[in-house]
Amino acid sequence: MNQLWPGYGKADPVSMKAIRRIAVKAERTGKFNSPFRKILSASFFLRRLPTVFFPSKSDITDARKLSGKGYFRQILERLILLTMLRMEPRDYYICALFMPERYARAGEFIDYRQQSFLSFFLNQKKSTIVTEDKVRFAELCTEKGLKTAPIIARLDPRTPSENELEKDLHPIALSDGVFFKPRFGLQGYGAGRLACDQNGTWSLTYANGDSGENKWPEIFRVLMENLNQELIFQPLLRSHQEIAKFNPDSIQSVRFITFRAHDQVRPLLARMRIGINDSLVDASYSSIGVPIDLLTKKLQCGGQKITSVIPDSIETFGPDNRRFKGFEVPFFDETQALAIAVHNAFPDIFSLGHDIFILDDGPVILETNHIWGNPQYAHKEGLGSFHAYINAIIEIAKREGM
Q: Which pTM was predicted?
């Protein structure tokens, strides 16, 4: 049993019903009742309805092998998820609801859509503009003495400066390489990598796989063609040597979730994100998520956010088939302390998801997200203080008269 925080334990079904009621009320608040959001909500059902009836053949086959449920039973349950819970039909497989031993427990937890509304409702404060703006966030971290990746240069589409940018980037691109990403979100081509060799030939690789080599003027032209917003450029970080062994050709980071209860920031859960193949980013679509036990600081089994892989089903990964389970994450105490320190800089936000990169000499904070995604990894006992998280939401709801 996790003794990290008082009140942790198996989620009380009464509390879970209260959470679901709060989530529904959150969805009905003025924040979501604009005509645009009403249309979006209706279109969500209409756009997802065809996917209920036409899942992939492999999903149907895997579900039948695991549970014995045939095509029509699966379709019915997918339809119920969409109609009653407004869940993505594909989440039927991600959450492994077709597995008998999990089916009864699934109803205890809020679904992804409810979690998203709750996160938006509880976290949408004025200071979230700082979490969304990577430049202002880096400035805040520097001001607070929190270690983060420095911003080498910026490229604004309104005032491009080809020669100045090359001058700023060349020393780093020639040695360690440069990583770039949009200042806000991941619009357009999103993130990418730049490097330069001794002959002055630059290589540009986007996260979607597009790449090329050329002299700087041509590379700059390609950057400008795909530029929808300001880019920021940072040194290309290298994972801790032990973590990198899972995939030397990609990047890895820790997504660490914290929440605020009784004016104290607490850890909720953490997971390592391992990039697949030579992916430049470790976002959900191109990574394996591996839960980290907060007490032992060790990895569990992993899962990939695609419908054909059940959570906690991947045991090994990498060129040497290294085992996830039992691997102790280096600098984990420092990583947790950094996540809590970052959250303390945002006293008005309930919960945050921190993207932390672990180097050979310790962790650095990359960015922080006030909408941090699916809480499914918190549903497993021993991985976090999910019960305390529920209690904190209920306390906030009581104070706000929900």
A: 0.81
